[in-house]
């Protein structure tokens, strides 16, 4: 590792570039970091005095000649401020961290964090040194790059022709499990040496470009193009097979670097997303649901019709290729690429599931915002609430709001917000509350005390206090 503090004068920095270049002659991993006291590009400075090409020439030439790579970073772009005001204020990017090819191969997962400057005119650079976790069991995950291998369809066909059990869904599960072993072997034989192949491709490219610099020929141009394509392919393979979460910021703001901490944070997040379990929930009142538009017999028959092969495939195609895989490690790309091989058995298994698989599962309270089916459940919940509130017009205890009686309006719903209207007396508010509690008990939905609010207009203080206590939410009086 080399730490740099650059000279202020351009002529003095010329000797510094020469010394740094001599240090870079080795083939060991090299990290170079510090205050270079010069900009690399014209946009690295905000000032009334523009950056000239002469200002950046030496630094840019040194950087490109050594084939360095700037370490990925987080934080503010400009790392130095002269602390002045107005037109005299200058902001520059003077602090950087670079790595050579060997460093990037071994430590490419590291990032530089630019922290707050506090009393300094420079932003400090923090490089958390962590090592990729290799001592934990890594679950299977399908890599998209495998589908481009010539043996991929043959591997799937051979594994899919195996007979296991009569139950269709269980048979598919066994076949997918067996294919994991075949894919792991493919990955070990063909993709584990990708780093070495990248090194070879880069060295070959450097040699070709050196020859082209001396004397260009069309043959060398073709070799350069082929080598660039090979290098791009190898880099793509490495990106696909080395994707992993090495750092995560928790909901409380902590930076997590350990695999166990990251796993626990993700587990807790998704457990909270799905809510808490419940042994049972009160049933929805069918008589209430019948007081409004209902499905015709023909519509009910169509909803209960057997799912078709076309619908199954359309649903599969609607899943993006970059979406997260299922719990078995297989993503949508796998099923799309091998659909012709697995189509018949998968479709039959799905149809069998809809016909026979009605096993109960534990109920859970609240599917929270962010869940993909949450908007649909919210619409259903609001429809149930609307029909509960619709019965209030026959309830003598309930009185409409003075501006809502002619139209029979009891509520308005906007996305995830709900407005309830009633005359400002205790009986009317209690009837609204009973409808809401009925909804809450049946569906596990609850109003948030932090966001609830009541508005009162021309109501005596005693009534306002009683109503506010009944609602236990925040109150505004008009």
Question: What does this protein structure show overall?
Answer:
- The protein is an alpha+beta fold and 478 residues long.
- The protein is built from 16 helices and 18 strands.
- The strands form seven sheets. A four-stranded mixed β-sheet has the order 1-2-8-4. Strands 3-7-6 form a three-stranded antiparallel β-sheet, with no helix packed on it.
- A hairpin with a 5-residue loop joins β11 and β12.
- It starts with a strand and ends with a strand.
- Residues 471-478 have low confidence and may be disordered.
Key phrases:
single chain, 478 residues, alpha+beta, 3-stranded antiparallel β-sheet, 16 helices, 18 strands, 45% helix, 12% strand
Entry summary:
With 478 residues, the protein is α+β, with helices and mostly antiparallel strands. The protein has 16 helices and 18 strands. It has helices at 10-23, 53-65, 101-107, 152-160, 168-190, 194-214, 218-241, 259-274, 286-289, 297-303, 309-317, 332-337, 339-356, 374-390, 426-443, 461-471; strands at residues 2-5, 31-35, 45-46, 69-70, 73-74, 80-81, 91-92, 95-99, 112-114, 125-126, 248-249, 255-256, 276-278, 363-365, 411-414, 417-420, 453-456, 474-477.
Task: Trace the largest sheet across and list its strands.
Answer: 1-2-8-4
How many individual β-strands? 18
What is the rounded distance between the termini?
A: 68 Å
Multimerization status: single chain
Strand count, sense and closure of the main sheet? 4 strands, mixed
Q: What is the C-alpha radius of gyration, as a whole number of Å? A: 33 Å
Tally of individual helices: 16
Coarse morphology:
flat
Average of pLDDT: 80
- The secondary structure category is alpha+beta
Give helix % range.
40-55%
């Amino acid at each position: 590792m080399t730490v740099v503090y650059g000279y202020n004068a351009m002529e003095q920095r010329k000797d510094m570039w020469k010394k740094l270049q001599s240090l870079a002659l080795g083939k060991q991993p090299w990290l170079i970091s510090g205050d270079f006291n010069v900009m690399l590009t014209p946009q690295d400075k905000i000032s009334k005095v523009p950056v000239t090409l002469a200002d950046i020439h030496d630094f840019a030439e040194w950087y490109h000649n050594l084939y360095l790579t700037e370490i990925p970073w987080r934080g503010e772009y400009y790392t130095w401020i002269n602390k002045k005001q107005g037109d005299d204020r200058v902001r520059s990017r003077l602090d950087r961290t670079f790595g050579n090819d060997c460093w990037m191969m071994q430590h490419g997962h590291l990032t530089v964090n630019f922290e707050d400057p506090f009393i300094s005119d420079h932003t400090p650079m923090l490089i958390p040194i962590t090592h990729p976790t290799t001592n934990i069991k890594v679950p299977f995950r399908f890599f998209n790059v495998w589908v481009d291998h010539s043996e991929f369809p043959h591997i799937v066909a051979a594994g899919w022709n195996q007979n296991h059990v009569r139950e269709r869904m269980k048979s598919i599960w066994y076949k997918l499990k067996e294919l994991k072993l075949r894919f792991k072997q493919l990955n070990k034989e063909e993709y584990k040496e990708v780093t070495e192949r990248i090194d070879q491709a880069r060295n070959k490219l450097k040699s070709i470009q050196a020859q082209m610099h001396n004397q260009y020929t069309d043959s060398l141009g073709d070799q350069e193009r082929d080598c660039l394509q090979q290098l791009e392919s190898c880099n793509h393979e490495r990106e696909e097979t080395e994707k992993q979460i090495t750092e995560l910021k928790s909901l409380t703001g902590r930076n997590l670097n350990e695999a166990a901490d990251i796993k626990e944070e993700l587990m807790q997040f998704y457990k909270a997303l799905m809510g808490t379990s419940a042994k049972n929930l009160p049933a929805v009142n069918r008589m209430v649901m019948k007081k409004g538009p209902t499905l015709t017999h023909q519509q009910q028959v169509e909803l209960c019709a057997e799912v078709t092969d076309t619908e199954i495939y359309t649903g599969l195609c609607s899943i993006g290729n970059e979406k997260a895989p299922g719990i078995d490690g297989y993503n949508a790309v796998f099923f799309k690429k091998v659909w012709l091989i697995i189509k018949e058995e998968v479709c039959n298994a799905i149809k069998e599931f809809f016909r026979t698989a009605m096993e109960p599962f534990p109920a859970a309270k609240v599917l929270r915002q962010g869940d993909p089916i949450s908007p649909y459940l919210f619409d259903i919940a609001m429809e149930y609430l609307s029909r509960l509130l619709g019965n209030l017009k026959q309830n003598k205890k309930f009185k409409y709001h003075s501006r809502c009686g002619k139209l029979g309006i009891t509520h308005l719903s906007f996305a995830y917000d709900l407005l309830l209207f009633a005359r400002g007396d205790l009986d009317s508010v209690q009837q609204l509350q009973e409808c809401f509690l009925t909804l809450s008990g049946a569906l596990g939905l609850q109003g948030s005390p932090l966001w609830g609010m009541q508005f009162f207009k021309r109501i005596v203080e005693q009534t306002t206090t009683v109503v506010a206590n009944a609602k236990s939410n925040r109150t505004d009086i008009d």
